Each structure stands twice: as structure tokens, then as C-alpha cells.
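Batch manifest line 330
LIGAND: L6N33NVT
JOB: complex structure
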Amino acid sequence: MPASASNDASPTRSAADTAVVLVNLGTPDAPNTSAVRRFLSEFLHDHRVVDMSRWLWCPLLHFAILPLRSSKVAHKYASVWLPEGSPLAVHTRRLAEAVQRELPQHRVLHAMRYGKPSWKQLLQQLRSEGVKRVVALPLYPQYSTSTTASVGDVLEQAQGLRTRMIGDYHLDPEWIAAVADSIHRHRASHGAGEHLLFSFHGLPQRFAAAGDPYPRQCEASARAIAQALDLPDEAWTLSYQSRFGRERWLEPATADTLIALAARGVRKVDVVAPGFAVDCLETLEEVALMLAEDFAARGGQLRYVPCLNDSPAHAAALAGVVLRELADWQ
Ligand SMILES: C=CC1=C(C)c2cc3[nH]c(cc4nc(cc5[nH]c(cc1n2)c(C)c5CCC(=O)O)C(CCC(=O)O)=C4C)c(C)c3C=C
Ligand SMILES: [Fe+2]
Ligand SMILES: [Fe+2]
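JOB STATUS: finished
ARTIFACT:
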């Protein structure tokens, strides 16, 4: 199936020579072992994600990680799978449709860096359709070499297209306001927790030491959102989740932070994940199911604040980010 066949956002083509593409990480096609293995294999072969020598990494990946991890992770996907598919795929498609409604003068599509609809194939297809310019918006509010730069690698290889990539939007005022407002509304309907935890996807510490701006941007996003909510410093904490492998990742870990909060007697914690544009395995299974269960076992209540997903405020914020990039490009 060509990549764009999965793109339902119906474009108004008055600016047919320009395409706007929201690019997310990717996700398996099905919650079963073979589909998860295919996805993990493509993802974990990317040098941007795992930068070890291939002589060391490939045997480890093929003979240990893929055989052992795929079925375990397939069960996790099954626990959050939606009737229409993987949450990340469903929410990304709907978000692209919502941004298309905000930008009727442009053609808005979505693609995945790994899996389908393929980012690489979409670029080839756009060129064959006569598109001249592509603006890529990686759906990572904070820049990281492990995620954003990998989207850029594919874009740089695209021949015969003029391209731009929006590197990050971690302090975009409309995006900050949208996240703050979603927390505010969640607290208004569920009652405010005693503490707000900002949980971001983690990264090996080595990446940060080599200059990856990701942790600084996570800190800046969390601080700006807390400020928008008028929260004093002691009312919120930033932590990192989804550790993979044995090396040291960014700290504190979300799981350890929740244990420490429970030990301090905090009973109601709101958790928000502003590093994820849309809900996915890492937010729905790891945070809203598993960490919530662990926290409940310690006598507490974890209330997960959903990602912005395809909310109108999210679509408007992202459309604004794209329009500013296009205005700069005339
Ligand atoms: C070395 C491994 C990994 C790095 C580095 C990494 C960085 C990173 N990832 C995201 C966002 C997402 N990651 C997701 C899943 C996921 N991530 C890793 C590993 C690394 N991530 C794995 C192995 C997986 C698959 C699940 C698993 O096996 O545990 C997802 C969700 C995908 C989905 O289908 O729902 C997202 C989103 C960021 C933002 C990031 C660096 C900052
Ligand atoms: Fe390999
Ligand atoms: Fe990840």
C-alpha cells in the first residue's frame, strides 16, 4: 500500500506544491509477536537510536533482544490496543486530520519514521506527484538526536525536493498554554492532586553528555508549564521513564520518583507526559496502567493526564508552528 493511502487527511490543494508532514516515531501494525519484532528490528537498527558498533549490537539484537522482548512487548501493546489500531497510529492520524482542518490552504499528511506509513516512501511519492516543498514537523516537542535528527536524516536523503524541518517547539507559547490548560481542566474535573509529575521519555546519559539538548528542553518545557499553572517549585517534579538496556539513563526515573512521593506521604499524584504529542504504549501502558498500579499498591492514586492528541488546542498550536516556519521560508 503506498504511504499516502493511509493518510486520510483530505487536502485542499491551493498550495499543491507544498506539503506539511507530521512525522511520528512509528508503531507495530498489530499487537502480536511478529509485528512487534518487525517494528523493533527497524527501530533498533537505527544508529541514531543505538550507536554501538554493529559488530557488537547486531548479535545482541538478533539473538537476545528481539527474541526475548517481542512477545513480552506484544502483550503490552495488546493491553492498550484500540479497535482502529495502535494508539500512536490512531492518534497521529487524527491529529494530522485536525491540523489539516486548521490549514485548509495546505496539504497536511502524516508519516512514521519506522513502520507505516513510511516517511521515506511518502517523500518519494510526494516528489513523483510534483510536490516541490516539504515542511516536516517531527511530533517531538523536545529535540533529541535519537528521534528528531533521525527524521532529518531521511529528509536530507530526499532528492528533488526543497525541505525544511521544525526541530522543536518545546517553548512555543500556544503549545505550553495547551498543555497547561489540559492539566488545569483535568484537575478541575478530577480534583487537583497533591503533586504534579512531568514524566518525559528517557535517554542514555551519554547522549546528554555528548551535547543532546533534550534534557535541557524537557526542563524548560516543564518549568514553563508549571509557571503557566502558577505552581510553586515544591508542587511539581520532572522525571524520566521508559528506560531501555543497562547503561545509565537520565534521572530521576519516574518509577523511583513515585516511590519517593509515596514514602513522603503524598497520596494523589497527577502525571502528565509533555514529551509525547499523542498517547502511545509508553504513556498508556507504562504510566496509566503499570505505574498507576504500583502507586496504588503503596496506598496512593495516580491520575494520568492524557496527551494533547487531536484536541483543537493542539492542532491550532501545531498549525501556528508550521505557519511561522512557512512565513520564514517565502
Ligand atoms: C535505546 C533505545 C531508545 C531510545 C534512545 C529512545 C528514545 C526515545 N523514544 C521516544 C519516544 C517513543 N519511544 C517509544 C517506544 C520505544 N522506545 C524504545 C527505545 C528507545 N527510545 C523502545 C524499545 C520502544 C518500544 C517499546 C518497547 O520495546 O519497550 C514510543 C512508543 C511507540 C508506540 O508504539 O506506542 C515513543 C513515542 C523519545 C521521545 C525518545 C527520546 C527522547
Ligand atoms: Fe542486524
Ligand atoms: Fe523510545
